[in-house]
Design a protein that fits this description.
heterodimer, A: alpha/beta, Rossmann fold, seven-stranded parallel β-sheet, 7 strands, 43% helix, 20% strand, B: alpha/beta, nine-stranded mixed β-sheet, two-stranded antiparallel ribbon, 11 strands
Chain lengths: 191, 251
């Protein structure tokens, strides 16, 4: 059981590039998980972060990262939730929008585009969170999406970190799917 | 032994420069093929064909875009600002834009309906243009608009056959853009173009639970093995990107 951002970063550091990690977030460890990856692991490995936001809009995460004084220079967002929210959203240069979390192919296309844009640097891709994608998609298409995306990322030596969050309704079905596509499971927080 | 035989039979490829498409085509379009790029409006036909020409020009192959309906000035203004595009390609004459109405005017083809002689004149003129400019890649956008002035199936067949042969003999790989309605049950407006072309690439808009996805599918391509699966595409400043269409959503 991981307890701190530094411990998480250390655990990730042990894994080879192209690893796919099922990161189970329990209790109130959400921001510890983000901090461990974005603020400690990625700068240490000198990799870009491509952050796919489904659970909450990118601007909320950006606001938190700013409060935590985390450098945003090498962090890009694929925001799948802001477009379906009613009301204006702030525009950021490092945020790329997908119209709906049901457009799974477009999520892959935006990730591909960002990886080309940052060619020459390795990347860590965060999917936040698989349970949130499960609200909008059935398990069959979600499994297919994860399988194709993670294998594409493996071929490019990128790290894939998929969040599963207890509070979003963790199911046996999700766990089985994650076991199938991920190499390692890491749990952060909880008792 | 077998592999030596295969490699000697392998046709030279014209890399489109669009990674996903070159993979689908097992290494690119067989050089000299005439391909029908067909789809309804907004599916990305013009953008994709322009990228094909830009990559060709960057690789040193003279490339020609013949615009039938839209002025090339307007076209270049509206095109996606590719990260890899270089203005110098146009200045050097490696990437050339020609407006078909200007060609018609110079040839004296002013009547609303072309005769078989007019078809010969037009094919000869386009062949000469390809020779003069040493063109290796050509796009006609759209062939449907040219066919509007041919009217009969016989003349359309004659035109496509002759233009295909003229371009292929010159080693020129060509994309003929074909406009069809979203509900069309064939690949071209007149049904003739698709039977004659060496390849058919179908571009479409797929609606899935209210989402509209741009899709691409290679239906036919002579001279190569290829995937016939449907792909989803995105038009980005890094060029056209493709990923497989997820099938779990089709149920």
């Amino acid at each position: 059981m991981i307890k701190s951002p530094a411990e998480l970063a250390e655990e990730l550091h042990e894994l080879p590039p192209s690893s796919a990690i099922d990161l189970r977030i329990q209790g109130d460890s959400y921001f510890d998980a983000i901090r461990g990856i974005v603020d400690i692991f990625a700068p240490k490995m000198n990799v870009d972060v491509i952050y796919i936001t489904v659970a909450i809009p990118s601007h909320s995460i950006i606001d938190v990262l700013k409060i935590l004084e985390i450098d945003l220079e090498h962090i890009y967002f694929v925001d799948c939730v802001s477009h379906i929210m009613i009301g204006a959203t702030k525009k950021y240069d490092n945020v790329f929008y997908v119209e709906s979390p049901t457009m799974l192919e477009n999520i892959m296309l935006k990730v591909e585009y960002l990886m080309r844009k940052t060619e020459g640097r390795n990347s860590v891709i965060i999917l936040d969170a698989i349970n949130a994608l499960g609200i909008h998609n059935n398990m069959r298409i979600l499994s297919e999406f994860l399988h194709i995306m993670i294998n594409n990322l493996r071929a490019k030596d990128a790290y894939s970190i998929v969040f599963t969050m207890d509070e979003l309704g963790d199911t046996e079905e999700v766990h089985n799917m994650m076991k199938l596509v991920c190499d390692t499971t890491i749990t952060i927080g909880g008792e | 032994m077998a592999s030596e035989k295969n490699s000697s039979l392998e046709r030279e490829r014209c890399l489109t420069g669009i990674d996903g498409l070159d993979n689908i085509l097992d290494g690119g379009i067989p050089r000299g093929n005439t391909i029908l790029f067909t789809g309804s409006c907004g599916t990305g036909k013009t953008t994709l064909s322009l990228e094909f020409l830009v990559h060709g020009a960057l690789a040193g192959e003279n490339s020609l875009f013949i615009s039938v309906t839209e002025s090339s000035d307007k076209l270049t203004r509206n095109v996606i600002p590719y990260d890899f595009f270089e203005e110098s390609l146009i200045k050097k004459g490696t990437l050339v834009f020609v407006d078909m109405p200007v060609v018609y005017e110079r040839l004296g083809l002013t009547s609303v309906e072309f005769s078989l002689e007019d078809v010969d004149t037009l094919v000869r003129a386009l062949g000469n243009l390809v020779d003069e400019l040493s063109i290796k890649r050509l796009v006609i956008d759209s062939i449907t608009s040219v066919c509007y002035r041919l009217k009969t199936e016989e003349k359309i067949r004659e035109f496509i056959l002759k233009i295909g042969k003229a371009l292929s003999n010159r080693g020129c790989t060509s994309l003929l853009i074909s406009e069809i309605s979203p509900s069309a049950d064939r690949y071209s407006l007149y049904g003739v173009e698709e039977a004659i072309a060496d390849g058919i690439v179908l571009m479409g808009n797929l609606e899935r639970r209210g989402d509209l996805l741009r899709t691409l599918q290679v239906v036919k391509m002579r001279g190569t093995t290829h995937s016939r699966a449907k792909y989803v595409l995105d038009l980005t400043p890094a060029g056209v990107l493709l990923v497989p269409l997820l099938k779990g959503g089709s149920g």
